[in-house]
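Working notes for the structural subgroup meeting. M.R. asked for a predicted model of this chain before we commit to crystallization trials. I am recording the input and output together here so anyone reviewing the notebook later can reproduce the run.

Input as submitted:
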Amino acid sequence: MNTERPDDHESAAWLDRAIAQGEAVVALARGERERGLDLLRAAAEAEQSLPPPFGPPVLAKPGFELLADEYLAAGRKAEAAQAYRRALDAAPGRRRSVEGLALATR
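Returned structure, recorded in token form:
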């Protein structure tokens, strides 16, 4: 008997993305900046292929916004601006991405 619900695969994909972001944050906290950025980039790219989550919005930061924040913290403004633009493509008008883009393009 198959007990899977139709949304189980989508839920698993979103959990995989959250785990990947968590691994990236751990790498960044350990001072492994390039590894952390690589993991964030991969998680953000994977997020683009996921269907919109069903139900109330998730409180997690969008992948490209998180990547952009880390690029900005590393002083890599051009890469940060590009990532903020990708974040805004997915969530037009998102205040934190708009503000981040403004900082990155100063």
